[in-house]
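Troubleshooting: if your tokenizer reports a length mismatch, compare your output against this known-good record of 139 residues.
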Amino acid sequence: MTQSRLKRFDYEKAEIGEELGSFEYVLSQDVLDRFRESVEDPEAAFPTIAIKHDAAAFNMVYEDETGGVNAGSEVEFHAPPIPGKTIKVTCRIVDKYWRRDKPYLVCEATAIDEDGRLLEKMRTYTMRKPDEVGKKWQH
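Known-good structure output:
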């Protein structure tokens, strides 16, 4: 049995500004073509949204047994990625707060290509008590 090198996620210990995982990948023409086909738009320009940069970066650092529920996302598109170029993704925790007795975590991922062009910024708001979902329908 191999031991995980990931840290166990603890909402109370998570710090605003904490850097999460970073990674690089090359966007292939095939990925762009498959994305365009899946969204039925032959000119769709931003296949990076399908890659979930923020979740990938979070999961590179943390093992999270309780999980979370996506409570919203914001994406800023700045420049379309170019097939064949390397994309570097960095991610960090930008906020955490309580609302209606539930903890929320906000992660922001930034994608920049090998030429230094800002491609996108994505912020995901995650409610960290997934067992709360659906309680209002229980009797």
